[in-house]
Amino acid sequence: MAWFRVLKYNTGMSKKIIVANWKMNPVGLKEAKVLFDSAKKIANKLSSIETVICPPFIYLTELGYSMSKLKIGAQDVSVFDFEGAHTGEVSAKMLKNLGVKYVIVGHSERRKLGETNETINKKIGVSLSLGLKVIFCIGEEKRDKDGKFAEFIETQISEGLKGLGNDLVKNLIIAYEPVWAISGNAKSKADNPEEAFKVSVLIRKILMEFVGNEMARKIPILYGGSVNSENAGKFLKDGQMDGLLVGSKSLDKEEFKKILEIANSIGR
Ligand code: PGA
Q1: Is 177 one of the annotated active-site residues of the chain?
Q2: Which of ligand 1's atoms lies nearest the C-alpha of 181?
Q3: Are 33 and 1 in contact (CB under 8 A)?
Q4: Which of 183, 241, 251 to mutate to test the pocket of ligand 1 (most atoms within 8 A of CB)?
Q5: How many angstroms does the Cα of residue 204 sit away from the middle of ligand 1?
Q6: Taken in order 23, 26, 29, 31, is the CA torsion positive or negative?
Q7: Contact in structure between 267 and 16 (CB atoms under 8 Å)
Q8: 261 catalytically annotated
Q9: Closest CA to 62 of 80, 89, 37
Q10: What share of the chain is helix, strand, coil (3-state, %, to 5)?
């Protein structure tokens, strides 16, 4: 059976969500501020997008104080929901108290370090319970022709969202990031927007099984993986994505500016 059947689902979202994942960059606070200020200047002029900057934990306090349209997100969160003897961990409550609005959970680079669907499920639950918006990353390592990757994605979703009620899921955002498309090795290359669209339809169908049709329609689905100013518009328009998760190009002031402006021109 074909893994995909075209059905059109529309979140009816008014704003595209553009998330900058700085990963383990930049090297100092001074550089982080320059990068943040540049994004802030542009974002303050754009009203049709929601811009979220996810810097490393150590810059969150400083950048979080800056008043602007930019929202701050964390790149990860602890699985533990109570403060205590957990060396090196940062809790969802700490993030919330700092004014952080979003948290990325389940990024493939964290999965590579050993994070399991079970851990991700706990992190999503803790974060959503505290009112944080969760950017839940999913995506296959390989896109095979037989559609086995679809089963892989289904498992990531079903195990990641296990036991979470619709009252929590309303603050969920899915980031579809095919691992092979994420920049970082010579072979990585962005997905094509039409294919990404098909996968987003599949994701929404899977979500429907878990959270019901109405809720599933409202969950934004972002695309991530080698997004740049040339393909951003295509993913948002042809790919009908609700937003983008931008890695390396979010560290390039000019590129990120262009991506935000393109997204704003497409958002309503
Ligand atoms: P990339 O990273 O845009 O550099 O491919 C995206 C991500 O890993 O979130």
Answers
A1: yes
A2: 5
A3: no
A4: 183
A5: 22
A6: negative
A7: yes
A8: no
A9: 37
A10: 45, 15, 45
Non-local (6+) Cβ contacts of 99 within 8 A are: 64, 65, 72
Ligand 1, residues at Cβ distance < 6 Å: 21, 177, 182-183, 224-227, 245-249
pLDDT at 233: 97
Q: What is the pLDDT of residues 27-44, one digit of tens each?
A: 999 999 999 999 999 999
Residues forming beta bridges with residue 134, ordered by sequence position: 103, 172
Task: Report how far ligand 1's centroid is from the alpha carbon of 180 (Å).
Answer: 10
Looking at ligand 1, which residue's alpha carbon is closest to its atom 2?
Answer: 247
> What pLDDT does 187 receive?
84
Residue that the structure tokens 């294919």 belong to:
195
CA distance 137 to 31: 27
The one-letter code for the residue type at 135 is: I
- Of these residues, 107, 109, 115, 255, which one is catalytic? 107
Residue 185 has pLDDT above 90, yes or no: no
- As a whole number of angstroms, the longest Cα–Cα distance in the chain is 54
